[in-house]
Amino acid sequence: MDPAAGAFLGLLFLLSAQPWSPVVAGNTYTCDAPLASTLPRESFSSSSELSSSHGPGFASLNRRDGAGGWSPLVSDKYQWLQIDLGERMEVTAVATQGGYGSSDWVTSYILMFSDGGRNWKQYRREESISGFPGNTNADSVVHYRLQPPFEARFLRFLPLAWNPKGRIGMRIEVYGCAYRSEMVNFDGKSSLLYTFNQKSVSPTKDVISLKFKTRQTDGILLHREGQNGKHITLELVKGKLILSLNSGHASLSSPDAHVTLTLGSLLDDQHWHSVLIELLNSHVNFTVDRHTQHFQAKGESSYLDLDYEISFGGIPGHGKSVAFPHKNFHGCFENLYYNGVDIIDLSKKHKPQIHLMGNVSFSCSQPQNVPVTFLSSRSYLALPGTPGEDKVSVTFQFRTWNRAGLLLTTQLQHGPGALVLVLNDGKLQLSLSQPGHPARDVTTGAGLSDGQWHSVSLSLKGNHLSVMVDGEAATVAHSLRGRIDSGDTYYWGGCPDSRSGPGCGGPLAGFQGCVRLISIGDKAVDPITVQQGAFGSFRDLQIDTCGLMDRCLPSYCEHGGECSQSWDTFSCDCAHTGYTGATCHSSLYEQSCEAHKHRGNSSGLYYIDSDGSGPLGPALVYCNMTDTTWTSVQHNGSHLARVKSSNGESPHPVFFKYTASMDQLQAIIDRADHCQQELAFHCKKSRLSASHDGTPVSWWVGRTNETHTYWGGSLPDAQKCACGLQGNCLDSQYYCNCDAARNEWTSDTVVLSHKEHLPVTQVAMRDTGQPHSEAAYALGPLLCWGDNSFWNSASFNTETSYLHFPTFRGELSADVSFFFKTTAPSGVFVENLGITDFIRLELHAPAEVTFSFDVGNGRCEVTVRSPTPFNDNRWHHVRAERNVKEASLQVDQLPSKTQPAPADGHARLQLNSQLFVGGTATRQRGFLGCIRSLRLNGLALDLEERATMTPGVEPGCPGHCSSYGHLCRNGGRCRERPRGIACDCAFSAYDGPFCESEISAYFGTGSSVIYNFQEHSNYTFSKNSSSFAALFHEDLTLAGEMATLSFRTTGTPSLLLYVSSFYEEYLSVILAPNGSLQIRYKLDRHQEPDVFNFGFKNLADGQLHQVKIHRDAALVSVEVNQNARRQVILSSGTEFNAVKSLTLGTILDSYYPRFEQSEELIKPQSATSTRVQSVSGGVALSAPSRVIPPSLPEQVSVCTHFPATRTDGVKEQKEHSTHNFLPSVTPASDRSDEARSEVSVTQVLLDPLSSIFKQG
Description:
It is a single chain. The chain is mainly beta and 1256 residues long. The protein folds into 8 domains: 33-178, Galactose-binding domain-like (Jelly Rolls, Sandwich), CATH 2.60.120.260; 183-248 and 257-357, Jelly Rolls (Sandwich); 372-543, Jelly Rolls (Sandwich), CATH 2.60.120.200; 551-580, no CATH class; 630-783, Jelly Rolls (Sandwich); 792-944, Jelly Rolls (Sandwich); 965-998, Laminin (Ribbon); 1009-1015 and 1036-1147, Sandwich (Jelly Rolls). It has 12 helices and 88 strands. Strands 1, 2, 3, 4, 5, 6, 7 and 8 form an 8-stranded antiparallel sheet that branches. A hairpin with a 5-residue loop joins strand 63 and strand 64. The radius of gyration is 43 Å and the shape is globular. The chain starts with a helix and ends with a helix. Its main location: membrane.
């Protein structure tokens, strides 16, 4: 066949696969012709008319005869204007006017439509539940295009509001075109079988389209089978359509073996619903009434390999593969097409491809019933009873989403007895009260607030009570006393304001939902007569329509949130989703380990959500909070895997499954500055690549399923290990150590760091077939560091400068988050405009951030006010969200502000301009300052890249310490980085990224640490300023000092701290034999020391205690455990001269011969164990006096009088040029099971000691 002819035939097939439409057929006919103006006056009708000149026949658009339009007798919300188009037409637009030259016009209205003039359905505009806005004067025309259009014969306009200075007045027009319709009717026992020839089937695509209507909740719409149980079935189940797909591999555990797609709700409403099914091999598109689900089967499954017949309306005979019970469809099909073939047309012509079973007709005349809608909790329907009857007999059907409400109440004759029927917690409760007798309650049914129709039958006669729900009796008989006579009036759904009594005026609200098929005393009630005023009375009802709608279709609950609903709203249960908010839009987790770190979190397992509110879920990773923040993602193959051939077959590759999905891994890698993965090979007579031609015999696969043969440290496809590139392989003629194929174990450890190829998903080692050849390997976790969006920032230097990005797409859910800092009093952060819609975030005042937007319901504002100004040149975090339920704004940790969305208003945010960042389209009220980490719906914007090409804006923003400096704890100093901060712990006794890791040591029996300050002063002098180092000259005189000491011990007596001077002055902190605290000060060599015994509790109890000592001249303040405080006065002096050294642990007599100590204090204490946990603090130098150059020893030494033995019996002595630790002085991290102590003394004097512990 000619290629052009083939392409033309393919186009014809695609066109024929869709239902007939004038737009498809050459696009030569537009469906917007006026339909009402050509109709006779008799085609117009109304609920009432003010006069003959105000009749509905004068209601055509632009008519001036009569009174110039229709006006009802009474202007209230129960009036309507109706048009009969004569036949079903496609309606695409409507237009309205007020009464000609009058003050009568309608400001809002509801549009309803019907096929037969009964069972009306409200037309709901896209994403809006409320009615249409109407006119603002009498003669201007308001025109609305209907998206989507609908098909109907009858239309009704129901005024909701009108000019308060006039009355209801309308002139209308309807636009559209003729509608082609082919119908078939199934009676619940019939079906249609279509057999086609193989040539008519597209090899790549099947398309099935139809419309249906029914009032039955269940039934098979179509079914097609294949071999081995493969089938496709479309079934109506409880008013929802379920498309079942069976791949024919029922024995497989794959989730694709049997798949069900569910769409639609309340489809048993006797209105037309459209269905489109597209099968493209393993891909399925399923659409019901414009809502679509997509499914892609994995592997080679195809849903086109089926038998050449398809049945509609049921499954004829006994289906080969359908084991589930099924019910035939009862209702009508319209415009049924299979791959462009008009099945109904073939059926009407009795073509041989069609086989009809049962009573199949080609018209659609379904019996009608008249439902009643109770619109509000104040609605009621009052119907007369049958007085004088000695029984009560009521039947009806109802459907609702509300779990509670009053269904029925009536006052019985012959006394104050009453019958009350309510819905409570989804169950039916009947209460019967009789004078002089206790009330009798009956509860039946469950889950009755599910939106389905439920039938109720209530009968009281004699002394028997019968209550049935959906055909099941709650109780057959209840013993009643006295005569039961029917009441005068039955109240459905609620009560008039004037009525009181049982069921009325109580805490239970009125019923909201639909009721139909009401029967009282075995007589059916016609609600149309009620509507016409001939029977009963009502308030706030819609008659001849069921206005129940499914607010969970489509579900606005995101990320798997579960939707539940009532009559007028819906809610989302976000439990176990990882998200929060009214629609489960906002992630509970930070977007990276970097963000967790700057929340002040330490290393550990964390959930991160890389795309925030985007579609990816949170992933569990390990965040290693070092100076560089590492993100670690584990997999299922972290242990060493041995590889060896068996039976001559090559080993199979090993697949790795990570704790995060591939999409999550890609998001983590994309955000990171660097990623790597270590792969360690161990080989014995096993090569990575062939020795001669370089043909790889081992390889690995990355996330894109591409095979790679290069190894770490090399460029992609270099096929060399790191040793080959560095030239240090064991055998220089090979590029990998393993390639030498030695008969001994060798190894290649490689680091893969090409981000686009990570993570490793498979590893294959095939060269293990030789005798005695073996291999093993271990794959490390995926490691990434950096976050290229968290610190991405821009500086806005002029009020007229801004950055622009593509239009923000956040129609139904929109969130914006960022950091800002500024000194300006106001400015716009972000703005995006539409024709009338907009969204804006701004600093409205120094202490106010405002989020404003309009989605068609008028301007909405949410403002957060702070007790302190935001323009303090510190980073502040802003997060704004707008969804169909509410709008919220959060700034820093201030209370979040929320504004609910208007009920049944517009929901879709429609924008079309560029997104402006840091300014506006008018170049007014621009922002001066910095914006960082800007994300819209989880998508990060690259501010730095855009700023490089924008005048008045610079990439980056310095000055992070003002905001994050508080994270540097315990004296750590904040250092600025281009992207963030670093905590300098050199002047702290703590370590770690935020100087929070305690530096500690364990002191065994008889051990000590001595630190001489001379060495530190020399080092400091060489590294820092001379003024700082000068503090450590010979005669450093301190008028005061502050020391903090934390410890944990069970031994006494113990020396905790000793500070000496060249002049034989000292400070010592001691635990006495009874565990009490003793502090000794000797500040004059010629006087006796001051010895103070503090009568605190026994501090040698194994618990952690803290002692703070603050001396100011002769006044010494001591605080224990932050509560007990004492003050004493020194008599030995007021100045500490020529500080020499600091000692932790036992004091040695040979070093300190002049120290007045008891023998008990220096002898070995076998029960004494002390742990030094940290050393930190700050010195208070009160008027240091003269400074005399000292002559100090050059070495810090740690030693003891007693031989020290490790726990394993090995003697050890470590000598260092600068300091020594006794063998019994060990880092605290190595002795986690021991008692802990912490020492923290003045920063200038003792911070050097922290470096000892850091090195030790």
